[in-house]
Amino acid sequence: EFCMRHPEIRDVCDLSQILYYGWTWVWYGTAAMFLLNNTFVQGLHVLTGAKYLNTMTDGAACTIGFSAIIATISWMCSLPRTFNTLSILASFSALFTFVSVVLAAIFAGIEDHPKGYNTGGPLGKLYGEPDVLSMTAKGTTFVSGMNAFLNISYTFIGQITLPSFIAEMKKPEDFRKALYAVTIAEVVLFCVVGGVIYGYTGTKYNTAPAFGSLGDEVYLKVSFSLMVPTMIFLGVLYASISARFIFFRIFENTRHKGEHTLVGWASWAGILGVTWIVAFIIAEVIPFFSDLLSLMSSLFDSFFGFIFWGTAYMRLRQADYGPGWISKRGIRGIAGFALNVFIILIGVYMLTAGTYVSRGFGPVP
User: Fold this and answer.
1) Could you give the 3-state DSSP secondary structure of residue 122?
2) 230-239, 255-264, 346-355: least confidently modelled range
3) Left if phi > 0, otherwise alpha if psi is -120 to 50, otherwise beta: which for 202?
4) Model confidence pLDDT, tens digit, residues 261-296
5) Which of 86, 110, 204, 309, CA to CA, is 20 to 30 A from 212?
């Protein structure tokens, strides 16, 4: 709704500057978070890709080598400069993701035991049947619980890219339909699949990503392999968004922006190369999947998932009803204001407490 009111918005950085009364420092701060978030997502997919290759080859090479392979392949796939090409890949990616996670849930249900069953594991805790709990396990620390919350939050927070997509659409008003459809589908799919896999693997044997919980190697490799298009595509998408953000501002009002020139293509490839090199470094510095998710959620999703949108609601209603809009709308104004203050406070809590618990890297007991 905010983007519809401000068609000049090209990305979330423009949006933030308009939200906060045109302050230039807000644009630069958001730009830094925007690029870091996208690069962290790329790093996450480099890490996931390396885990996949480790799984398929039974650790035939070092993780660093696998990460470099994934980063190189992703860089090559990032080279198309329009969302039109990427939108076709997105359709296949969504289909493969659906089949992959549904198969993972089915395999978790039909196999005899989850991976690591009664083996003791590295910490000597993997004994007995899977413990499926409806409430948090007794003795769970604040750090463990908050990390779990941040991991779940990341799955449902993708608003950082929405202004970029809306700006590219021929009919931006149609985006609302797509947003409703995608959100309903992902909530249903992730809750059902996550619940089923947890139901068969329990707290002790569950892993991140969940494919690692499958005890049958064939099941594990089949379901994980179907995620390859998504592992590559999502990293490519975020790399493309970052590259467009930088490229368009460097070559604004020049022929290199819209024409096929050597300078334009070399710059585009170079910008992408830098983002994938940084993503590779991030994947090696933070080699634990859940820790990387927690850090990303606390630093970036706090703003892009909560704080910005609570503020956007208030700015829209203020523009619609003027000063005193809360009281003018009666109970709707009071309820809307209270809800969005709560949303903003959730973002602040994620930023402060979330960053605190994710400040150290390594497995959480």
Assistant:
1) coil
2) 255-264
3) left
4) 888 899 999 999 999 999 999 888 776 666 777 888
5) 86
